[in-house]
Amino acid sequence: MENIARGILSQAEGFKKDGNDAFRKGDIEGAIGLYTSGLDSLPLNSSKEESARFTLLSSTLLSNRAMCRLKLTERASNGNASNGSSSNKRKQLQNECIDDCTLALQRLDSIRDGTASTNSVSESEKNGLRSKILYRRAKALSLSLPSLEMENDATMINEDEVESNLNAAAKDLLQLLSFDVNNREAASLLRKVRESHARLGGGMGRSRISRALDALRSAGASAVAVMADGNEINDVQSAMTRQPTPQEECLPHLRLLQACLAEEVASTAQEIGRRGGAPILLPIARDRQQCQHARIAALHILSACCSHDAFVVQYAMRESLPPQVLAQIVEEESALSNTGSCGNNATGSADIAVVTMALLIRLILHWDHRQVLSFFSPKIREDGTVEPNVANVDHNFPEVDPSSVCRVASAAFLWNCDKGDPESNDDASTTNGNGSGDTRVPRAALDLLSAWTAADLDALDAASEACAGISSSSSSSSSTYVKASHHRITPEEIRQMKPRQVAAHRKREAEYRNANLQRAIRHTSMFCSKETGGLDHMLTCAARAKDHRLRREVGLQIGRLVSNLEEGDDVKKLVASALGCADWKVGSDKDGKSNLNKELHKLTIEELDGDDEEKDEVDKEEKTTEEDEEGKLPKKLLQTMKRGQLTASLLIGKPEVGTWALKCGWSNGNGVSELKDLISSNDPRAMSIASEIVSAASSVESSRPLLSALVEEGTLEDLLIHPDADVRSGAASCAAKIGLASKALSEDRGEVMGLLDVAIELLFDETEQGNDIAPAANENALSAMKKLPTSSNRFPETESTSMDRGIEVMAYLAAKTFVKEELASGYAPEGSPPGRKTALQRLVEIACAPNSGDAQMAYGLAGIFNLLSVSVETLRKEAFVGKEITKEQYDQLQALGKTEEEKEAAAKKDETEGDTPAAVSERIRKLANANVPRAIVKLLEGSNSDATQEKLLEGMNRMASESSVRGLMIQQGCLSTCLNMDKGEKPSDAEKKILRQARSCIAKLLVTTDPNILTVSQRSGSIGPLIKLIRDNDALDLMHFEALLSITNLASFGDETKNRIVAQNGISALGYAMFSDHEMVRQAATEAMCNMVPHPDMMEYLSKPDNLRVWIAFSLDYEDNYECARAAVGCLAMACPDPEFAKALVKCNNFREMVRTLMECGQVELMHRVLALIAGLIEHGGDCRKAVEATGAGQFCDAYVVTYQDKSKIKELNFTPSQRESFASTLSLAKEVARLLR
After folding, report:
1. 20 to 30 A Cα–Cα from 582, which one of 44, 149, 324, 683?
2. What distances in angstroms separate CA 363 from CA 14, 341, 359, 915, 1035, one per listed residue?
3. Which residues of 1065-1096 are buried (b: 16+ CB within 10 A; e: fewer)?
4. Tell me, what's the pLDDT at 938?
5. Can you give the pTM of this predicted structure?
6. b/e for 498-522, b at 16 or more Cβ within 10 A?
7. Per-residue H/E/C for 623-680
8. How far is it, in rounded angstroms, from Cα 685 to Cα 675?
């Protein structure tokens, strides 16, 4: 049987050899026949011992035959592909090749799977053959890609088959490369397959996109035919009564397109555009016959596509995606939101309106970024000229139609927010926690205005981020936009540029700023004009809003808009009509009296008549008691609220104009009177606006006197005791601002504590709605309102909730020492509900809440934690850092002008203040136990604000100054957070400052912390930031000192940290620090180097003659820098056991001088260390011993021992106990040296 099997195998091998010869000669058909004969000669069944070789040979013959058929397929593909018979022949050969490869792999796998014996087949043989088979099958599959001519003839393309074959080819090649990674042919073919796949559309496949768009196109044609029969929607009323189309028609195809975008955005967007997707999708978004989900999906698809420049440039121009149509969609939905609230069944969809605005923002941002590119992309030559031609920049790209933007924003601000979207799945659409409805539409309008009126690069980037947030529900949030601020040049880049290049870039920046500012002014003026009505719509939205957050956001946006206008008269002209100021003219004086300049007075008769008509209209409104169109507010009150909201916004955006409005612009000088009307209206929304006004006015020095009448009459008390937290918070903020500027109040502890009680109550208002405030919370705060200040201090206004305002007030009050002590000790207002958290616990809870770091209140929390961990004296010292005069010198100068009584009073005040270092340390311990470090960590992790991060790190540094809490701070995540911040390259100046603070905090935490309690990543990760801090020339000497102490501490751990220090080039950094101007920095650097001994790199560094001379010089400088000299001598003594170092040391020219000088210096510690050095050198023998003998060390030690053997001599030296112990060890070491040298 064995001979028969061998004969069969030999015969089959012969057929294979003949087939190979025929293939090499080009006889492909003959080779196929020979390989087929070889296959036929092999038996189907055989014993296990024979099966392995037969199976391997069978797979080989199939593989070779597949190769022949692959060659024939390639020949057929290169021929006339359009010929039907040729195409069929090619297809047949391709399928036969693929079948042969598949069968060959199955037979080969049978060996691997154990159905055949593997004794006679090695794994390398199988892998070699499998590699060939997989490649040949992938090659055959890849030939299914149609030619360019076939692609143009859609009837000849089976797109499903093409995509399936390409996917199968990629799978085979990936499998091949998994065990044959160096196969260049396979890697090259895989690249080609992927390119072909991408050319077909990528992602989920071109065929699916095509079919989906074709189906949508057909559905759109049917809809047009229906409309042609007379069913077209002509107005909103007919839209409300029309029955929607079933969802099955378009929605599945739209979902498919969304899935394609989720898989791969760029190529899918291009494919959608190339196949005319924009003109198909936009009608679906407009058609109210479609279900709401289909319309939203169509808009999401367009928005995702428009996030990429290429799509917008090629397929989203005005004729394909006209902004006027988008405006019409929002206007229709807004109209339905208002008419639907009157009893109709149809309602406007907030989702549709929001996504439409997101799409419009995409178009606006695209135009803005094209403008940025047109300004900054051209390179500046060394001579200062600019290269004229820039690729991929279309300077004539049309701007989004301004009137359409105004229409969209105006319609959005008129949205009825009193009810939610019935078809929306968004929880925010039904309620936002304040009893109000869906506010997403006006908020989206605010983002739209931010993008449209962006006046600089930073504002443009902020608008881009807002757009990403508003359209977060779309298929993809990715975008091809590069941050506009990326075009700013860094100081490093400036240093590399020629002067003319810098001047040209500065000029270009100025031109862009001016052009963009002028554009922002035009847009602002157009939107806020009386003709457009945008400002009036925003004020109406704010006045009617039940959501106080939305009201503040709208007010702040108005403030931002008016801040674009540089001249106060331009702002007044823009808002005079809305304020009801009919008497103001350009050139009027501050009191509002007419003082017209004829050259500036350009008002026409028609404008004057219009003002009179407006005044008559206002008078008519004041006489009526009818309610507005929503039946919620009397018209007179609504008008007053709108004017009050505008005044508050002006106080924020243009404080000088805001003061004018409050004094004489609001209703021709009746602003304070109407402010009282708002307070006495008992309407929570009106009183909230009044609260905003007094809070904003108290931030402006010139406006504070206008509040005196309200304080004297007790009118503000109505706000301060109002049950609505939003109303109460503004009054409390006002009380804090004017109160802390008042000297009388700042010295009254009771009144300050009263304000603190109010602030604490505001922290709990949002979690305890309906609860009464603590009874004693307002008593002292009310009396504080009677004392108006005249200080020039300015307090920043923030867009905040009642909780934010409570934090704002507390941040002001925390400057007082007794407030700090109360908060750190767990203060709670008298009469607080049982079980309520203390004020500090509540602050920590707020800070640890999700997204707290990115909230407006984060900076206030950072300020509070910062103030609690520092003394007033420290703050005063820090204020003089970098100044030409120190704090002590300033105090001395101030004392020269004081009498003895004043000095005694000041000293008494300092004693009673009690903000001593001991008190601060105790306060920090309480803060650490209250989890304040963890709160700071949470805020840092979520913050994107440079100012907030800097303030938080400053507070963390202050706490880390207290050594007893460093371990607790590390446990609460401070060290890990600071390490995570030290990432990234090329930081900006602001980021460098933050990194310096983070590294300083790492240094403070590790000065005294046992390295054994740290994780490996913490130990190793800390070294890099510390070395960078040591190298930082802008860091303070204290930062360098602490970083060096921390490196010293870490180096003592062992080889793990020493190796890391060496890897970070730490030895050179430490050597550089040894030459610092500050003595303590030099000492710390020298001690850190000592702890690096005996690392091989450190020994190599010390053995260099130049470095040795430096260390010897440091050792001899004991009279001026004793500590540094002691460390240097100790380092040499520690390094002495190394033979190479010892030889290098004794060869130094000043070695003898060092030894003799230190032995005779009279400093016991230095003598002890140099004797240890001598003893180590003696043990090496040879030249080292001779060098020591040449110094006279033996004679000195003999004489030293003889002199001080008598204990009575030692008593004459008057040593302290510790010095006597050190002297005894030195004397013992001298005896040992003398013995060794005998």
Report:
1. 683
2. 71, 32, 7, 57, 45
3. ebbebbeebbebeeebbbbbbbbbbbbbbebe
4. 94
5. 0.63
6. eeebbebbeebbeebeeebeebbbe
7. HCCCECCCCCCEHHHHHHHHHHHHHHHHHHHCHHHHHHHHHHHHHHHCHHHHHHHHHC
8. 13
